[in-house]
């Protein structure tokens, strides 16, 4: 007999996560947990056999990287269950899938200067929202900021004298600083002068509140449609593009990792790896032919 109903356990897990994790992280864990609980149906979700059956089923239908995300969410949930006395840790001893660099890398679209120009062209400079969207695009183009980091910036995070922006708490709580090129700084400053409401946050939404990561994604989607760009346009793909640009500039992985707010060099190497491999092969062929 199950002592604690799964939905009550989920609620307790959510409250604990909310006390120490970012909202986006909490949503991700809960979404994966909800899929598991729905899959269980009449099965007991707290026993090891059910977990193994579920992970086997997911492994058949999904990629190894997707399986790893489900494994991570369940490991966190059952760790909480064990600590709270809900049940024994059904994930204990179940190892996560090993991911090769190809498994770990997401095939992000590569944006060109023409794509950038098309996006900027649909941002009318005579409206404050057009100026905001222009500043957002240039911020994504010139920095490696994640969506949550960009939308979470405060006006006070911008150092106009040093031409830098400080991310107070990035992924994993990492604090790091990014360079703000003149083109980006000019666009951000012009937008701030024209926005109709003064708030603590750097990016103002249509509702007069701080912009959210979801709002940023939807904004990019709308702009891409207006610009006639057929490939997906989303915030994290700009981060891939930025890393490729740094490699082409001759920067080391250690330097790039520090600028991207990464704790390890290995994490950084997953960005744009396939594009860089293709460029390396093309360069090798050129040298062979020459």
UniProtKB/TrEMBL annotation:
Residues 4-82 form the Core-binding (CB) domain. InterPro entries: CB, DNA_brk_join_enz, Integrase-like_cat_sf, Integrase_catalytic, Integrase_recombinase_N, Tyrosine_recombinase_XerCD. CDD domains: DNA_BRE_C. Keywords: DNA recombination, DNA-binding. Signal peptide: none annotated. Residues 106-285 form the Tyr recombinase domain. SUPFAM superfamilies: DNA breaking-rejoining enzymes (SSF56349). The keyword Ribonucleoprotein does not apply. GO terms for biological process: DNA integration; DNA recombination. GO terms for molecular function: DNA binding. This is Tyr recombinase domain-containing protein.
């Amino acid at each position: 007999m199950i002592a604690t109903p799964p939905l009550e356990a989920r609620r307790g897990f959510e409250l604990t996560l909310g006390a120490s994790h970012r909202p986006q992280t909490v949503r991700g864990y809960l979404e994966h947990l909800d899929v598991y609980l729905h899959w269980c149906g009449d099965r007991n979700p707290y026993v090891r056999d059910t977990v193994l059956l579920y992970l086997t089923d997911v492994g058949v239908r999904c990629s190894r990287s997707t399986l790893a995300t489900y494994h991570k969410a369940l490991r966190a949930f059952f760790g909480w269950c064990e600590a709270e006395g809900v049940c024994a840790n059904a994930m204990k001893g179940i190892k996560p899938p090993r991911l090769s660099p190809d498994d770990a890398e997401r095939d992000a679209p590569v944006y060109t200067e023409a794509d950038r120009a098309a996006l900027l062209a649909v941002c009318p400079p005579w409206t404050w929202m057009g100026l905001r969207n222009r500043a957002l695009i240039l911020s994504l183009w010139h920095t490696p900021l994640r969506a949550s980091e960009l939308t979470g910036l405060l006006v006070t995070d911008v150092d106009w004298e040093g031409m830098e922006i400080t991310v107070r708490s990035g992924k994993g709580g990492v604090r790091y600083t990014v360079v703000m090129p003149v083109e980006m700084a000019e666009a951000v400053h012009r937008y701030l002068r024209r926005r109709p409401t003064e708030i603590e946050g750097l990016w103002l939404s249509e509702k007069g509140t701080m912009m959210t990561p979801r709002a940023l994604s939807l904004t990019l989607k709308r702009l891409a449609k207006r610009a006639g760009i057929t490939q997906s346009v989303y915030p994290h793909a700009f981060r891939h593009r930025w890393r490729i640009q740094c490699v082409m500039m001759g920067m080391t992985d250690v330097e790039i990792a520090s600028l991207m707010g990464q704790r390890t060099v290995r994490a950084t190497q997953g960005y744009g790896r396939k594009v860089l491999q293709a460029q390396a092969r093309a360069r090798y062929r050129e040298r062979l032919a020459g």
